[in-house]
Amino acid sequence: MATINRNGKTYDSVDVTAFIDGIPIEVTSLTYGNEQEHQLNWTLGSSQATSWSAGKRTPSATMGIMMHDIAPIEMAAKGSILDIKPFKLIVSFTNEFNAPVFDELTVKFQNEGREVTGEMGLKKEYTMFALSVKLNTKP
User: Fold this and answer.
1) Measuring CA to CA, how many Å separate 66 from each of 27, 43, 99?
2) What ranges in 1-139 are assigned the alpha helix state H?
3) Eight-class DSSP state of 110
């Protein structure tokens, strides 16, 4: 994966801040983006594609959260985070020169559960139902 480099410093995971509807949340991982359908088009009499078309864009997102951070969200949702309506997730990155990058996602939880391993600090990677992923937005 390429890194974003501004003014000589690469943005690091320590530079990330995430907010759910304006409330800061600690996340262990975030993966998000957009994918667009593409297709080749052929015309009669040609064995080579003569043009291409672009189709719909589909956003996607996953978010890792520690159990001690998701438990209060589950309790506020009366037990099931699947019942939480879509919300804004703002992700900001800054570096030593305070050059900010803001990404805005509209998502909702698509799965729930626990990942219990032998590791210290229980966390789970949640698949998010992404309605929108906007990169490099202004706050």
Assistant:
1) 7, 54, 28
2) 67-76
3) -
